[in-house]
Every structure is written in C-alpha cells, then in structure tokens.
Write a structure and sequence with these properties.
Blueprint: E1 30-32, E2 35-40, E3 43-48, E4 52-54, E5 57-60, E6 66-70, E7 73-80, H1 81-101, H2 109-125, E8 132-138
Antiparallel strand pairs: 1-4, 1-7, 2-3, 4-5, 6-7, 7-8
C-alpha cells in the first residue's frame, strides 16, 4: 500500500458521493452573535452588537448586522456573515424589482418574512443550509 498522499491522485468519479454538492458549507466561519428585538405599543426596537468572530477570535468590531429592508422593516442576523450578506443581496434585489415594477405595491413585513422563510427552507431542503438565525421586525397596519 502506498502511504504517500502525493501519490494517491484524484478520486475516481464512482468514489465521489454525488448526493453532496461541491461547495457546501459545513460550518460557519466568520460569525456574529447577539441580536435582540422588543415589541412595544408604538412599534419594534431592535439592537445588535458589532462584533464578528473568527472562531474564538474577536476579529472584526465594526460589522453592522441590522439591515433596513423596507420603510418599516428591519432584519437582524446572527450566524455566518457571508450567508447574511447573501440574504441582504437577495432582499435588496427583490426590493429593487418591486420598485421597478412601478405598480404602487411595496413589500410589507409579512411579505418579507414569507420570502425569507422560503429562501431558508429551500436551501435547507437542498442540504446546503444558510447558517443564520434572523430577527425580522417591522410595523404593518
């Protein structure tokens, strides 16, 4: 048996499990932690810290994890920051698409929640989940 990894070569295609897509994130690398949302009589208040950790190393201290999605909706995220940036991009693209339709309709908080829920569920069923937990707050009617 050859014990030198450099001599092993690449695996044959029948040895590779085709059910697991390449590039699936197994763990969150750069993470954020605390987000809190409080509902009160006049609306919703949300807060988050600005720290992003690389493992146990407090690496970045100026990361904003609250994102204004619509006029009356804010999204807060914990977990992997690259996945959060992906969600921000999807939500911003959807809001631009709604604005460009110029039909007078805008997405409200329940619509944004439904869209976000479908994104998370879709990725989870494909065994490539987004490593985030979201707090969505907003005022609707």
């Amino acid at each position: 048996m050859d014990h030198f990894p450099n001599n092993w070569g690449n695996p044959r295609s029948e040895d590779v499990d085709s059910r697991v897509p390449h590039g699936v994130t197994q763990i969150a690398v750069l993470t954020g932690t605390s987000v809190i949302g409080v509902k009160y009589k006049g609306g919703v208040m949300m807060a988050a810290d600005n720290l992003a950790s690389f493992g146990s190393l407090a690496r970045f201290r100026n990361i904003e994890r609250l994102h204004k999605v619509a006029d009356f909706t804010v999204l807060g995220a914990t977990g992997d920051l690259s996945d959060y940036q992906y969600i921000q991009h999807l939500l911003d693209s959807q809001m631009i698409k709604e604005y460009s339709a110029d039909d007078g309709h805008t997405l409200a908080t329940p619509n944004i929640y439904e869209y976000l829920w479908r994104i998370m569920y879709n990725r989870r069923t494909k065994m490539n989940p987004l490593w985030n937990t979201f707090v969505l707050g907003g005022v609707h009617e």
